[in-house]
Structure formats: C-alpha cells, structure tokens
Amino acid sequence: MWMSVVALPLLPVIATLVFHYRERVGALCRSVFHRRKMSSFAQRSLERRTHSFVLMNSTHGQPESVLQTFECYSQTQPTCSIGQEKGEFLDSAVSRAAPLQALELGTHCGYSAIRILRLLPASGKLYTVEQDPDTAEVGEEMILVAGFKHSQFQLLVSPSCTAIPQLQLQFGVQSLDLVFMDHDVAEYLPDLRALEEGGLLTKGCIIVVNNTHLPGAKEFLRYIHNSSHYSVCFQALGMQEIRYQAANTTEELTVTLSYQMVT
C-alpha cells in the first residue's frame, strides 16, 4: 500500500523520461527481446499494440503513410522501430549503396524494412531475418500493408547464424550490396565473419550497424578497426555506416590470424 502512495506522484516524471528517451527505450527493448529476458507474452503485446495502431491509422499501400504512423505512435509509446532520426541515417546509406541485394538482420516490427524497400531499385530485393515467429508475423504484415510484395522481399524466420548460409543454399544469393545489422549485438561479429567466409560481401558493400554504443558491440568494433578492409564512413546516434573493400585470400588470412592472436 505504502509503495503505491510513493509511486503515484512519480508517474508523470517516469512518463516524461520514457518520452524523452523513447529511442533508447526502443533499442533496449530490441536488445532484451533477442536475449530472451522478456517473456514472449510481453514481446507480443508491445509488437501487437504497435501493429494495431499502424494498421488502423495508416493509408495502406503507401509506405510514407505507414512510416509516419509508426513515428506518430512512437511519440507517446515505446516501440521496436529505430525511429525517424536513425531511419534517416539508414536512408542515406541505402541511397548511397543503391543495392540490388540487401540483407537486414532483425526485422522487428517491419519499420526499417519498409524504409529500405522504398529506396531499392525496381529490380532490388531485401532479405530480412527475424528469429521470433510472432514478431516475424507482425513485421511481415506491416511490410505488406505498406504495399510491398513478396517478390520484393523474403522474410527468413530463423536465427541469423542459420539464415546466412540459407541465402546461398536456398535462395541462390551470391553477393550483397547492403547489410543492416539491428539484432543481438553479440551476434554482429560472428555474422560478419560468416558473411565474409561465404563471400557474400561485394567490394564496396555498405554495412549499417545499429546500437554500436552497447557493450556487446565492442568485439565487433575492434575487429572492424583492426582490419584494413573496412572503413567507417559515417557515425551518429549509436549507428555506423561501414564500407567493405574486398581483400585477397592471403590478406584475409593475415587479418583473421592477427585477430585470433589478440583475442
């Protein structure tokens, strides 16, 4: 009883803090989801509330309307979208890459997939990966509501470590021009190494990475900074745009061995 009396006056303060730091709250939610520290019920509840609002208040078949509705909802409620500011950072990278083949690791509610898809060339295709089936269902419906067709995107419902080999074996993907990483930061480095080993990164491939400020991204960043095959082009808002330059086999082996000796 006494806790209720103490907590009630603090509610406006808490609400103000959540609103002010809503993008960080969203990033925390995404990280928690992938580490399974939140119940599946709580995850579905957050995703479904966002889904319902966007479904009812956006103009179907118009990507910009769907994105604006996401942003309207995020003004008062935490969501799993990256938000408008980070979305514009992603837009710039996609425009520079002009990718024919793009990969997104972490579909979430479909917000970033919609941002990417609306900027792809007519012949471009997005492969987006989400390991949670319920979240994947919500994300896929939002992408379809925005007006995109299954011929324009492929949703893989599996962990990223399973999905990356599938790109070649099941879908015949030979190279990627853009990669967006927005899943569990602890998987950034293993997944990057898997993309390298599979030869999936084209020369000049742009890799956009979210939440690089989180502790789990340290190993990934160290690997990037110790390699001559990557250069950080832009960074802001806890995001980095990284460009990959292809290397010959000897150079790649030297970098890999050097990294292993350091660790």
Number of strands: 7
Structural class: alpha/beta
Shape: globular
- Please provide the ordered H/E string of secondary-structure elements: HHHHHHEHEHEHEHEHEEH
Distance between the termini: 52 Å
Q: How confident overall, as mean pLDDT?
A: 86
* Count of individual helical segments: 12
Strand content: 15-25%
Q: Let me know the largest β-sheet.
A: 7 strands, mixed
Which strand order do you get reading across the main beta sheet? 3-2-1-4-5-7-6
Descriptive keywords:
single chain, 263 residues, alpha/beta, 16% strand, globular, disordered C terminus
Explain the overall architecture:
With 263 residues, this protein is α/β, with parallel strands linked by helices. Helix 4 runs parallel beside helix 8 (133-145) and helix 10 (188-197) crosses helix 11. The radius of gyration is 19 Å and the shape is globular. The protein contains 12 helices and 7 strands.
Write a brief caption for the model.
It is built from twelve helices and seven strands.
Which SSEs are present, and which pair or pack?
Elements: H1 2-7, H2 11-20, H3 22-34, H4 40-57, H5 63-74, H6 83-97, E1 101-105, H7 111-117, E2 125-129, H8 133-145, E3 153-156, H9 160-169, E4 176-181, H10 188-197, E5 201-210, H11 218-225, E6 230-236, E7 239-244, H12 249-262
Parallel strand pairs: 1-2, 1-4, 2-3, 4-5
Antiparallel strand pairs: 5-7, 6-7
